[in-house]
């Protein structure tokens, strides 16, 4: 199905990773800005939860619709569609003079993330030269998760250090996406025209060859992405309402550092064995949740950041080794389908806890909600640890 390896160069791989990361950066830009949006438009934390739910719905719908689209159109056209959706989102947030534009902007942001999440991952895997095949999965997930983290950090820095608090981050995003459009010129097209198939809309299924490992890999993905959702929901409220720190820079760093730590861990430990990677990841995530359970009642920003770093490293390892095991067990022409199913599980995991945490925070309080969720995630870490032996033949 693929073009020859002659088209797979370091430049092509770098360009593909950049396009992937640039679009993902745009999806998390609003997170550090929600406290400011709440004061400008007069809505509360429940509206913020709805905005996140709309984004998550956009991601999942886009994954369902576009998960196999690159097998019909090719990788580059679908990457271009994702970049275009991201640019529309950036424009809407830049001119966002009403609450309604925020909702529409979040829809486009979710659609762009869904398009890039599956196609971007497979495009990176396909674009990797033979010498980098082993770490291609880690590079793909690092571009994805790292992009999410850098989006929060960039947004917080631009909003906090420039006079353009709400519009500046999205102007930066627009520029990044325009550059991504130019980078697509050197992204290799790895789906030959002769191998393209008619587009059909259907729910992604897991290929039979990967179903066994998909189940155990999903445990780690659920735990890791649920923690990402928990931090995205709890950290901004914790910094603002508990610590009384109303700085977009602090909010961006406190939330973004988890995702950056995830990306760093995936690259730094991407060469260890799959069993060891899952072992380290599950232990790190468990420790991170224990630290979070201390940080909330002690109202400690330092412990919150430690928890984010350790949890992010654990999340990254669990997710990347799960993805590597699934793609390793899946025939090349079914990778898009398998990765789409995996990311649907992951985004359901990041979405549902965030929404539930948002609801419970308004009724029982932020600290009890965070502690209970940390406990549930710790249990999932124990399960992931116990099933690590299933990765011995994969990844």
Give your account of this protein's structure.
The chain crosses the membrane at residues 12-29, 49-66, 78-97, 103-125, 137-158, 170-187, 208-233, 245-265, 277-295, 301-321, 341-360, 366-386. Keywords: Cell membrane, Membrane, Transmembrane, Transmembrane helix, Transport. Residues 7-392 form the Major facilitator superfamily (MFS) profile domain. This protein has one domain: Up-down Bundle (Growth Hormone, Chain: A). Mean pLDDT is 85; it is low at 1-6. α7 runs antiparallel to α10 and α9 (211-242) packs antiparallel against α12. It starts with 9 loop residues before the first helix and ends in a 9-residue tail after the last helix. It is globular, with a radius of gyration of 20 Å. The protein has helices at residues 10-27, 34-41, 45-66, 69-73, 75-94, 99-127, 133-161, 168-183, 211-242, 248-268, 274-298, 301-328, 335-364, 366-386. The chain has 395 residues and is an all-alpha fold. It has 14 helices and no strands.
Which terms summarize this structure?
about 400 residues, mainly alpha, Growth Hormone, Chain: A, globular, disordered N terminus
Which helices and strands appear, and what pairs or packs with what?
Layout: H1 10-27, H2 34-41, H3 45-66, H4 69-73, H5 75-94, H6 99-127, H7 133-161, H8 168-183, H9 211-242, H10 248-268, H11 274-298, H12 301-328, H13 335-364, H14 366-386
């Amino acid at each position: 199905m693929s073009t020859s390896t002659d088209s797979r160069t370091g430049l092509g791989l770098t360009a593909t990773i950049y396009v992937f990361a640039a679009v993902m950066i745009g999806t998390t830009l609003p997170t550090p800005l929600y406290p400011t949006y709440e004061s400008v438009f007069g809505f509360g934390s429940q509206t913020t939860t709805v905005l996140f739910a709309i984004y998550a719905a956009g991601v999942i719908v886009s994954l369902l619709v576009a998960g196999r689209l690159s097998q019909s159109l090719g990788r580059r056209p679908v990457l271009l569609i994702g970049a275009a959706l991201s640019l529309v989102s950036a424009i809407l947030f830049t001119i966002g003079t009403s609450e309604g534009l925020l909702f529409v902007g979040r829809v486009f942001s979710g659609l762009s993330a869904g398009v890039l999440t599956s196609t971007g991952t497979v495009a990176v895997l396909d674009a990797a030269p033979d010498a980098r095949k082993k770490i291609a999965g880690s590079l793909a997930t690092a571009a994805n998760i790292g992009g999410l983290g850098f989006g929060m950090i960039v947004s917080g820095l631009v909003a906090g250090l420039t006079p353009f608090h709400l519009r500046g981050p999205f102007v930066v995003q627009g520029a990044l996406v325009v550059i991504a459009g130019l980078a697509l010129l050197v992204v290799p097209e790895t789906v030959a025209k002769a191998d393209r198939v008619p587009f059909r809309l259907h729910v992604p299924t897991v290929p039979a060859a990967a179903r066994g490992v998909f189940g155990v890999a999903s445990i780690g993905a659920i735990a890791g992405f649920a923690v990402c959702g928990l931090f995205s929901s709890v950290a901004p409220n914790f910094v603002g309402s508990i610590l009384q720190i109303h700085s977009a820079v602090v909010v961006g760093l406190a939330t973004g550092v988890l995702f950056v730590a995830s990306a760093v861990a995936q690259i730094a430990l991407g060469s260890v064995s799959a069993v060891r990677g899952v072992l380290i990841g599950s232990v790190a995530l468990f420790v991170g949740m224990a630290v979070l359970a201390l940080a909330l009642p002690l109202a400690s920003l330092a412990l919150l950041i430690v928890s984010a770093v350790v949890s992010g490293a654990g999340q990254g390892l669990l997710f990347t080794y799960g993805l590597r095991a699934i793609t390793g067990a899946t025939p090349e022409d079914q990778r898009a389908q398998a990765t789409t199913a995996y990311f649907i599980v992951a985004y359901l995991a990041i979405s549902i806890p965030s929404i539930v945490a948002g609801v419970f925070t308004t009724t029982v309080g932020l600290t009890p909600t965070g502690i209970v969720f940390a406990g549930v995630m710790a249990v999932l870490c124990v399960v992931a640890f116990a099933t690590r032996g299933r990765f011995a033949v994969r990844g």
